[in-house]
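Re-run with default settings, no changes from the original entry. Doing this only to confirm the output is reproducible before filing.
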Amino acid sequence: MPTSRARLVRRVAVDPAGAPYASAFAVPAVDLPPLTPEDWARGTLEGAPAAMRWFVRAGWLGVLGLRLGPRSSTQHVLGWPVAVSGPDGITLEAHSPLLTARNVVSVDGDALVWATYVHGESRRGRACPAAPPDHPLSPRSGGPPGFVRGEAAGALPGRAIPEEAGQPLS
């Protein structure tokens, strides 16, 4: 649905905090509904179309081997365990024999930011971030489902994905 208030999702710099791979995407917070970071995380992951939810969970579980919890638990977001949650941010963290992945959603006065951090836990896991960035199961696929397409919680109608989205940090 076209709108004159389309929002630009852009890749932003992020401190890798020791992670071999880190990426972040931001949306201007002006005129966004006053949702908590947890609401944005739930809206983005749990609000994605059913086929997308099934596909990404299949990749997280079957390909990456992430240990996820129940989808309907208040302590999980689409199976991702909630490690930390507060008024300014939420951290979802999942582990597998291959890797540890963290998704951090934060809201400040200027932007809604979704950052992903991946640490390889084995030789195979350290190779995982080298997957092609356009592969939908790659941690570099361009952000969470719905977020970069501008559909997070149904509130972001714009569609603008920078060409450099999902490239590894230098």
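Residues 66 and 96 are 4 Å apart (CA to CA). Residues 1-6, 130-142, 148-170 have pLDDT under 50 and may be disordered.
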